[in-house]
């Protein structure tokens, strides 16, 4: 009985977490990052403004990344562990349907899917985060990278055509829009998987 209550409580929790994660990822890919690259100047026709907007994007993006790192990553980990626990505790009943009358295999599948999201984030998205932040000479946490100039002193912020002290140390070899577009596309996986696993958990709880 106690195990059944724990499973039901965890199921309710992961349903809420998963739909929250999916909604956040959809917001990032359909609104947040697209708005940051809207009307982005062409590098060939307006290189000065392009360089400014690239460095600005590199300054803005770590703000979004930190929220995901501090909030979304732990929530995704909680979902992974919760699905694994529900699957394990159900399988311990010694029959296919488990103690709560629900199949353990969909929860195991959901745990594996969440694990792929964690791996995908680390292997594919984190390098893009680093490159986006690098446009402003920063790391993905938003901290300025310490680089030495030819005189041996740390680089300084310079005034650009906009009169802004945006860091001039950015990596201008990277195409800002291409990086952002790649991130947007790959992030859709992080929107689809929680929606799918949340649907699985909801279906199992109603079965």
Question: What is the element layout, followed by pairings?
Answer:
Blueprint: H1 2-36, H2 47-91, H3 105-134, H4 176-206
Helix pairs in contact: 1-2, 1-4, 2-3, 3-4
Structure summary:
This protein is an all-alpha fold and 207 residues long.
Q: Work out the number of β strands.
A: 0
Low-confidence stretches: 148-170
Mean pLDDT across all amino acids: 83
Strand residue content: under 5%
How would you describe this protein?
With 207 residues, the chain is mostly helical. Helix content is 68%, strand content 0%. The protein has four helices and no strands. Mean pLDDT is 83; it is low at 148-170.
Q: Features of this protein?
A:
4 helices, 0% strand, mainly alpha, 207 residues, elongated, 68% helix, single chain
